[in-house]
Amino acid sequence: MTDVMHNFELFQPATLADAQAILGDHEDAWIIAGGMDSLDWFKHRVKQPSVLVDVANIPDLHGIREEDDGGLWIGATTTLTEVNESEEVQSRFPALAQAALRVASPQIRNKGTIGGNVSQDTRCTYYRDGFPCYRAGGNTCYANTPTAMNREHALFGVSRCVAVTPSDTAIALTALEAAFIVERGGNRREVAAADFFIGPDIDITRMTMLERGDILVGIRIPGKWAGSRQYFEKVADRNTWDFALANIAMAATMEGSAISDISIVCGAVQCIPRRLTDVESLARGETPGEELETLVKRVAARGAEPLNFNHFKVPLMENLAVRAIRSLA
Predict the structure, then answer these.
(1) Which helix (H) or strand (E) holds 41?
(2) Are 193 and 182 spatial neighbours (Cβ–Cβ below 8 Å)?
(3) pLDDT for 2
(4) pLDDT tens digits for 140-173?
(5) How far is it, in rounded angstroms, from Cα 219 to Cα 207?
(6) InterPro entries, per this entry (predicted)?
(7) What CATH number has the domain spanning 60-120+167-224?
(8) What are phi and psi of 10, to 5 degrees?
């Protein structure tokens, strides 16, 4: 039955402690806030949890505030529109503001949260349509067969599954070296972006390190890249609604005309945000120009293993890296 949800029990806790208690009492509880990803799963009856925990109205999970080091703390239930329109985000981390602006449509950004955006599941059509693939507990990757339609899928990091990360804000947050604050049973821990997003070689059933009972409380962006030169670009079939075919985020500091430090990350080419460490090594200490752009283009997609229908992603990825570097000239 399409677009008809299953029956479930809904809890709307007012505090983080209440939410933790409910999660402790129900083994298959599903956390929801904006619901932009979750409701699709429910309508198609692919996921059918018996208990939903709506954390959208918990004050501790919402808002944007300045940190002592000049960075920002962003609550997990802060909407994408609020992130994009925040003067603090725009002035310190414009790459994140642009990434939030490019998510889906205005209606979805008004409801969808940054915590949900970074935690959403992959958009692989085979997986989302209920095929018994590796990620769903089966023994086949239907997107990696001779006749598969895999235009949107991975170039790197394939381990049975060829799905890619769908989140635009995850790419910007990884470039900004953000940390994710996760709470379980009243205990909080801080997880670096490099460890928050996980590939199929670690756990093929998840795209983040979040497990049952974990609540993403907020995201801390350190002041290291505040006010730096930043860049974000997303290439998709349509400017509204569509997920990225490839996107890129960069933060860089300059010393005179030379690049003193840089962080650059590409999305939609691997299951996790892909940090372009070879490009970073090339760029540090160099002056942006045609010579550097030529070298960057050579290494940006090095090691890519295209599938049947996504060879175009290789030059796309190369050119996005070049455009990011060119923005510093």
Answers:
(1) helix 38-43
(2) no
(3) 63
(4) 999 999 999 999 999 999 999 999 999 999 999 9
(5) 17
(6) CO_DH_flav_C, CO_DH_flav_C_dom_sf, Diverse_Substr_Oxidored, FAD-bd_PCMH, FAD-bd_PCMH-like_sf, FAD-bd_PCMH_sub1, FAD-bd_PCMH_sub2, Mopterin_DH_FAD-bd
(7) 3.30.465.10
(8) -105, 130
